[in-house]
Amino acid sequence: MEFCRYADDYIIFTDSVEEAYGCLIYLCEKLTENEGLAIQKSKTQIMTSSEFLSLSEFGTSKDTSEENTQADNFLKLRLFYDPYSPTADTDYDDLKEELERFDIVGMLGKEISKSRINQALTRRLINSVKYLSNYQRKAAIFSLFGQRDDTKSNLDVLYPVFPSVMLLIRSIISDLDDESRDLIFDDLRALIIEESYITKVPINLMYAVRILAHDKSEEADFALIKAYKGQANPVILSEIILAMAQHDSDYWISDKIKSYSSLSRWEKRALLISSYILGDEGQHWRDKIKGELPDIDTLLIQWFSQRFNKNNGWGVLL
Question: Residue 175: its pLDDT value, please?
């Protein structure tokens, strides 16, 4: 790795995109830990050598192609829908009609095919997928999670907007067919198991965990347990505990409560909730420790107990 500096601007040169993201993650962590600072997102970019060499501060040309005009028009759309509005049905139909003017899936595919996406446009395209027909939505999912080449998936180029992809999936996961869900789950499990630079970013890992909570496969358990063992962030650890409970992984939850006293408060609260999948064993354990619980945790148990019984089983809390 080599770098050059001009005032407070740095340019870092690496041999691969993975190394570039690794450097970026390291810098973010060190700046936060040592200086309490954060990298300015709008000025931070990862680009290929050809893109870097093509940049010029004296460039004045403007892209007036049909493709760019379509992108500009799409960005002007107001993608807002209020389901509680008195005119919700009409508003929804109007929004879908507006979106039909654009080839959402095609535009998304073109962005993904680039080495560096237009982040604003790609986020807007991703957010619009939820309003597409089932057929178009499935095509979009296969674009987002498809294989870029033998070594990379499309998620690699979508790294800057990974949270937007995860928020989309979370909003439509229950409506997707098995083929689409399996594709998503396969990719997310691979990111965690292979320790991808994508899920080394804490917020990205948290989003991935929340999606994998819907994946009841043994492979998902393996990925989540691996993430738990290699993670220090207590909030993410608590999310993994809740995800394992969503899987009804009683063997793992039962083992985890044995180390309850040494866990963080976030993990403890997640275990209090997760213990409900253990039936009588969970009840006995909660009765045993209830005297040492802070008031807020006692209230948490009371609240979830009512919800658990009302739903006649485990409720989604992620």
Answer: 93
CA dihedral 180, 169, 155, 95 (to 10 degrees): 100
Of residues 47 and 300, which shows the higher confidence score? 300
pTM for this predicted structure: 0.76
Domain for residue 202, yes or no? no
Q: How many domains does the chain have?
A: 1
Residue 12: φ, ψ to 5°: -110, 130
Question: Can you give the pLDDT at residue 66?
Answer: 67
The Cα 203–Cα 226 span in angstroms is 17
Q: Does pLDDT of 39 surpass 90?
A: no
Q: Domain span at residue 12? A: 1-44
pLDDT at 69: 77
Contact 39, 29 (CB under 8 A): no
In a domain, 59, yes or no: no
Average pLDDT of the residues in 282-288 = 93
Q: Is residue 4 in a domain?
A: yes
Q: What is the pLDDT of residues 165-209, one digit of tens each?
A: 999 999 999 999 999 999 999 999 999 999 998 999 899 999 999
Residues 6 or more apart whose CB falls under 8 angstroms from that of 122 comprise 108, 111, 112, 158, 161, 164
